[in-house]
Write a structure and sequence with these properties.
Low-confidence stretches: 128-166
Distance between the termini: 24 Å
Largest sheet: 5 strands, mixed
CATH architecture of the largest domain: Sandwich
Structural class: alpha+beta
Strand order of the largest sheet: 3-9-8-5-6
Oligomer: single chain
Shape: elongated
Number of helices: 3
Radius of gyration: 18 Å
Mean pLDDT: 82
CATH superfamily of the largest domain: Immunoglobulins
CATH class of the largest domain: Mainly Beta
Number of strands: 9
Helix content: 10-25%
Number of domains: 2
Strand content: 25-35%
């Protein structure tokens, strides 16, 4: 699953957001946040959750509008939060989850003292790709020469969406 930021007027992709991204609220005013399930996921709907606010979407493209006007779906506030995108086999976010992605991001006002927009900094790492503390502990406790296998196993498990080491 990709989580993309798009220009609302042109529809062109500005960037892909991942864990560690720092989002400039001023820069993203009037943009779209789009969830793109992996090809072949056979999804019928997508739920995008930003912090505690969820949007159930049954029509493609699966996107919400970010901004400060009354017609926007979501107004970002400064701080740390999680964005989750889940693709479902049924309509209205029902059925089985067929694809998902969770990222942790930080939003900031995005204006300097002169009123100039400070750009976002995007990181394409997904939460499942970030090494966890338990994986680090396993690597530290592994016998010499075995740490490489633990890292490969952890990376493979993360790519498959599970954690075989814990």
């Amino acid at each position: 699953m990709q989580i993309l930021i798009l220009d609302a007027d042109s529809g062109s992709i500005n960037n892909e957001a991942g864990s560690g991204s720092e989002l400039s609220i001023a820069e993203l005013d009037g943009t779209l946040l789009r969830a793109v399930p992996v090809e072949g996921a056979s999804e019928q709907s997508v739920r995008i959750t930003v912090g505690a606010t969820a949007f159930d979407l049954s029509e493609t493209p699966y996107e919400i509008r970010i901004g400060s006007s009354g017609s926007d779906d979501l107004t970002l506030q400064p701080g740390d939060f999680v964005i989750t995108a889940e693709a479902f086999s049924g309509t209205d976010s029902t059925g089985d989850v067929v694809d998902n992605r969770t990222i942790a991001v930080t939003a900031f006002e995005g204006l300097d003292a002169d009123g100039m927009i400070i750009p976002s900094e995007f990181d394409q790492t997904s939460e499942s790709e970030v090494e966890t503390e338990s994986e680090t502990e396993v690597e530290a406790e592994a016998a010499p020469g075995a740490a490489g296998a633990a890292v490969a196993t952890g990376a493979t498990a993360a790519a498959a969406g599970s954690n075989a080491l814990t």
